[in-house]
Amino acid sequence: MDFSLTGHQQLVQETARQLFTRECPTTLLRGHIEDPAASDPLWRHLREFTPLGDGPLTDLCLFLEEAGHVAAPGPFFATTALFAPLLAATGDERLAATLAGDTTGTVAIAGTDGIWLPNNDPVKTFVPEADRVDWVAIVADGPVLGVVDSPTIRQVHTVDTTRRFFEVDVEPDVAFRAIDADAVEAIVQRATVALAAEMVGTARRLFELTLQYAKERVQFDVPIGSFQAIQHKLADMALDLERATSAVQYAAMTVDAKDADRTRAVHVAKAAAGAAAKRAAKDGIQIHGGIGYTWEHDLHLFIRRAYASEYWLGSSEWHRDRLADLLF
What we know:
It is a single chain. The chain is α+β, with helices and mostly antiparallel strands. The chain has helices spanning 7-23, 26-34, 40-46, 57-69, 76-90, 95-99, 181-216, 228-257, 262-288, 299-311, 316-327; strands at residues 105-108, 123-128, 135-140, 144-148, 153-156, 165-169, 177-178, 218-219, 222-223. The chain has a domain at 181-327: Butyryl-CoA Dehydrogenase, subunit A, domain 3 (Up-down Bundle). It is built from eleven helices and nine strands. The strands form three sheets. Strands 1-3-4-7 form a four-stranded mixed β-sheet, with helices on one face. Strands 2-6-5 form a three-stranded antiparallel β-sheet, with no helix packed on it. A two-stranded antiparallel ribbon has the order 8-9.
């Protein structure tokens, strides 16, 4: 079986890489810290790619890996990886406008425990970009779905400055309708793999920054990359990154094919991506030394994204526990 990228997938990957490199420099990420509207020009480009939200997950993952590489802010992930698939699964009339890039949305499922399972908690937590989208889809126990345009929200500040999270109040007058439980599970699985793909891109950026620094930083008249201890760290980072990349690609294929192995593969992908991102962050800042701790250096922007993404949609430990449940 040939697992290499098709011509179409290579085009998706290269287009995304060029777009994000050109339109999402680190100056945009720093501007976004003070003013979320700084990401609006980027969204005007990304809205052309919202049809990926209703296409193969393998294609979306290739695109989102490049988004993670630059820690792209804005509503693209929430709209394409969460909102559009939910609309497609429920036959919602808003889908056409969403795929055309004319409207944006996000999804609120997790309750006070932060776990992405339908529940009746009056407050939904860890809802991404709730103040920057047109619609918020609320999923409650049943499961049931209600789509609202102006819920009561409160921002929850996290370590990540590139993705903004909110609490959303579930008002008594929300008009809910029944939806299929399997559809909700499939949407969460799809979003989990999509996030893992983003994390692979972020881990790759951290690895590239660290490798370049190890080649340039000189101590005792030689680059620090010539020291065996540094080489071992870089090798371990590269191995974790390769393992996570393969796990994410396999999980995306199983989700697209509705394969019986998809549940296990999703947990493996998020756990592997989390391990790669955490190692790249931890060893990356150690190799950078003192300069890596400064606000002026860009390393912290990607470390923040890596750690926040690790704990969203289930940490590595949580997904390993779910794997244990499947095995035992």
